[in-house]
Amino acid sequence: MESAGRSRVGIPQPPGVQEQPDSAAAQPPRSLAGAAPDAAMGDSAQEEQSLLLAAAYVYDAQYNRNIPFDTSPRAVRLYYLYNHWTMQAATYFFIFVDLALALFEEPAVYLLPFLVTSLTEVLCLLVFFGRLFHFAQVTPRDVFWKDTKNICIMITILMTLVDLIVFGALRISSIRGVRWSRPLRPIFLINFAESRQIRRAFRSIRNTLPEITYVFLLFMFSVLMFSLMALKLFGDRNLKTVEGLPYFSNYLEIVFDMYVLVTTANSPDVMMPAYDFSWWYCLFFIVYVIINTYIFMSVFLAVVYNNYRKHLKNEIRKLAYMKRRKMIEAFNLLKVKEEAEFVVKEDRWKRLVKLVAPDISTSHRELLLRICDEEQKGFVDKKSFVRLADLLNIQVITMKLHSHPLEVWIHQVYNSAPSLLLRKMVQHKVFVWMYDVIILINAVFIALDEENPLISYAEWVFLSLYIVEILLKLYTYEPRTFFARNQFWNWFDTSIILAALIATVLNTTLKSVTVYNSQQVLDIVFILRVLRLIRIIDSIQRFRVIMTTLINIVPTMLTFGGLALVVYYVFSIIGMEIFHGRVQFFGGNSTVQHALYCGNPALKDTTFARAKYCKNNFNDIASSFVVLMELTVVNQWHVLANGFALVTHEAAKLYFITFHIVVVIMIIK
Amino acid sequence: MESAGRSRVGIPQPPGVQEQPDSAAAQPPRSLAGAAPDAAMGDSAQEEQSLLLAAAYVYDAQYNRNIPFDTSPRAVRLYYLYNHWTMQAATYFFIFVDLALALFEEPAVYLLPFLVTSLTEVLCLLVFFGRLFHFAQVTPRDVFWKDTKNICIMITILMTLVDLIVFGALRISSIRGVRWSRPLRPIFLINFAESRQIRRAFRSIRNTLPEITYVFLLFMFSVLMFSLMALKLFGDRNLKTVEGLPYFSNYLEIVFDMYVLVTTANSPDVMMPAYDFSWWYCLFFIVYVIINTYIFMSVFLAVVYNNYRKHLKNEIRKLAYMKRRKMIEAFNLLKVKEEAEFVVKEDRWKRLVKLVAPDISTSHRELLLRICDEEQKGFVDKKSFVRLADLLNIQVITMKLHSHPLEVWIHQVYNSAPSLLLRKMVQHKVFVWMYDVIILINAVFIALDEENPLISYAEWVFLSLYIVEILLKLYTYEPRTFFARNQFWNWFDTSIILAALIATVLNTTLKSVTVYNSQQVLDIVFILRVLRLIRIIDSIQRFRVIMTTLINIVPTMLTFGGLALVVYYVFSIIGMEIFHGRVQFFGGNSTVQHALYCGNPALKDTTFARAKYCKNNFNDIASSFVVLMELTVVNQWHVLANGFALVTHEAAKLYFITFHIVVVIMIIK
């Protein structure tokens, strides 16, 4: 496999040239490298090859991708395939199939036979292995084996296979095994090269960890000290909690209660018995909350923020350096000598841009060329060439002045006096205001009771009014402009109204055909009906600005969502192994006794059972996610922790404390 | 009163010179102003006067104080008196007396006769008026009347007097009046010139308010929309809450519940009935929390942060400008012409510094002179002079190498071989480690039970060990160095040990003399005993760094504390007027029935009464502060709000919602 032309991306050379380890400083014109493309001009395949390689460099620079790849013709072609969107989409698809298996494996939301899930998992593993093998063909061998990501994936694949085999064997011999490799699945999501954002978030957490740890230790020391004081102050007073249990008498329980107080989840209940005993004791708790919740939290935030800023600066500097280096490599591949300086000829430059960004228009490409070759000399110099990666990232909105299709088809009617008047009306401010008033009236009607037949009739009126509005707008404005990419509200409006129309028609049909009133469809109708009201925001300029800010936050939220998915998945799987079946939810058709204790006598007379938390359990991955969401919100988490500790062991609280710490770190990051 | 010499600080001139309104641009050497001090050199009183005025400018520049004052000799002398620390301390003292009156007025923690409290209040008002009158003598009349701060104080004094008279008259005729002027008292704390930091915080909040309002409106819109959806989705399902009440059937109650959910205080309880009904409904609440708690909170923070940064930049720029201007005014007062440039002579400079900072040492002053007059020309030029205000703010630690007093007194014994060995031992690392081990053993002993006589004996052993440690250290290290200002831990150690010694002795004496075991003293002994353990932090370098950060946060916390005091005070007084006496706490000696409902049948079977929150009431200012603290911590605030709404009116919830909004704004500021 190893050929002479192979070299790392940092030090690439035109193929066929002998390896020169010190050629990273590619600044001085190397006669060999510089001459190679020229000399090979006749050889069109050679030319094509270096163009392909240069395009790969530019593409990587444009998207800040830092994958070292081989420069042999075969590797470059494989690299193109590797980066093709179908391959990436397939990888993501199989990662999500792998993760989604938890829905169908015992304890399942919808149970599938073990054979089906295990075969699917093997298929996923095969795909992952194939993807990794493909990557190994693209990247130099020593780089591949030095990258912990690849090792990590391989070990995970291996461990999962071993686990599957052992579990299957145990299953055949009717022994209940533990699928211990399942929490490892998110490793695929993190470690495949596509998930750069999530990996960066993890790296940033890892960088902050050492400094956070010291603050955390000091914080824990403070909690332990206060707990000791609490033991001494309240331990011998024979006080009772609201539930009649002894108050602050066991050191470990005090530490847990004081930790919960930091999250403020048991305030003010934990204070009340002492406060009832003596007014002065409230000072103890107030000082505790001020120090351990407010002051320590601000120190945490300060540490994280400083660290984050420091590392961000490094990361950005490194990215900029890598980008520049890749662009210089691309330049070196394409350059020819022109009057004492090396340049890239115009036609070659155009072919490169066509390769890198096939879907940009000819006019756009001409515009880019005019920027890069300002003096229209017919070539691009090095300085301008390097800027190309950033130029390609600038979104150019092509304003095409289409004329309205109706104008083309029925010119005379469309431009007749009544039509012109109608179009003027729709464009007038009063038209918008009128519909704002309609929305407000609609809001009042929605709030009123549904049973009244007049109101359900009104609903049809409103729906038709909205449809008329959209049709009028489509008549007045050019449809392609109306549904342009950046017209968020038009898209929003039309889809909500269309969905509402479909759902309402469906609901009415179902009502008239069957006696059964479909709950799901009705719910959707309700939600869509209310969502329609959101449109009123669009009329107020200040709100529109804030909404744009909100929409801009979405990408950050997605990275955060990926991070949360990983954490939730791991904790869910572990939680299901520990707590599965310990707490049961019985619907309305169960005996009262069972429902009262969530099917577990250990929960008798606990806050958990009294608050009817039975459905907060780890009996399948969907329920687990809901419980973890509740834990993320923090409120009442001690009730959940205590409940699950009662049905298993006191040590189960550690699971909840760990989750809380992980979530806090995740959120403040 | 108005004399020719009077002018504002922005445009000051040497006294006796005719007013020149355009002299603010004092840059070009004005022959008159420049010559005046020179010509009056013989007139020592005149000279003294301009030095005094210059010193006032420098002092103001050093502490960033921006009080415009008259430049007449009498006004300058009054200005010195106005800024004297005793006057400032007296003002603060009377402000706190005025605020503390709430402790003694009905509803009181300790009731004093109305005559006493009202006379004290009148006395405070007189003091405030006197202070204001003093200020009016210092500052130019038109500036005084333009300043809203002064107007505010005067109106408040007047209103309080009116209120006092009306209330007193009503009282004599046995009609129960309302002391409505009491919530105005914090105005004195905010508006006297001394509370610059708190005022700045308020200003910064006021600046952010307009932008926050828009985000808040959008947020409320979102809450209202979700509430409408909730009404439609869950309203007709006949679901019941845990308490058996109808679930989500009244729109206003839904809005309140949804607002509470934003603060996460009723999560997951508010979700459970819908979640039990159908799994899918949990998505509604999860989406709600993600949008309204997490996303909106980050938008809030972003808006506040951007605004804060913008205004901070302006404020800092303005401060720097004012400082420079004041220094230039001072320079103009003292300058003489020396070789084509104006300078300040060395002896005059020294007298100025002596006036501005009387307590710095001669060597420190010489050092400053060497910095200002680098080339030792015998004078200070303008550029160096302007820097003086900043130079004075630099803390210079004078390292005096005192020899140990014992070395002076008993030289031979102190330097004898055993003494040297002892000193070497104390300075050794092992000595520190040994005491760390002792602290750890001590911690174990503290955690053990108190009843054991052996352990109470051990307590004496530990106490003596700690005292021996301090004595040994004082023997080895020079006491003045040991107790230097920056030796936080030495101070901490010694005071804790001394306090523990006194408290333990007191406790033992009380025990042996009376049978009564004083609870307060014992509590203090416990707390001091645990506080001793904190010392172990000092042994770990990383912890010491974090502790320094924590201690550095204190000044910011104090400003925040002042802000919180103002908010708490206003809400407490209002809360007492509304809720006073509605909820009663009965100690152990009351009938069970009464204790169960907190003395109010409206609270029967409520979460408030069941959680035994009776002591969370507004029956005196101390209790009110505790309730407001609990509301600040947010958890369970809806239980408190519901409780107080039940004993008064549903509208009482507005009080709690308003407090929550104010606190959120205060905290995120």
From TrEMBL, chains A, B:
Locations listed in the record: Membrane
Any single GO CC term annotated in Swiss-Prot or TrEMBL for this entry: membrane
Entry annotated with the keyword Membrane: yes
Domain Ion transport, chain residue ranges per copy: 82-310, 428-667
GO MF assignments: monoatomic ion channel activity
Keywords tagged on the record: Membrane, Transmembrane, Transmembrane helix
Region (Disordered): 1-39
Chain ranges passing through the membrane: 85-104, 110-130, 151-172, 212-235, 247-266, 278-308, 430-448, 454-476, 488-506, 518-537, 549-571, 652-668
Keyword Lyase in record: no
InterPro entries, sorted: Ion_trans_dom (IPR005821), Volt_channel_dom_sf (IPR027359)
Membrane topology, record value: Multi-pass membrane protein
Main location per the UniProt record: membrane
Name the UniProt record assigns to this protein: Pore calcium channel 1-like
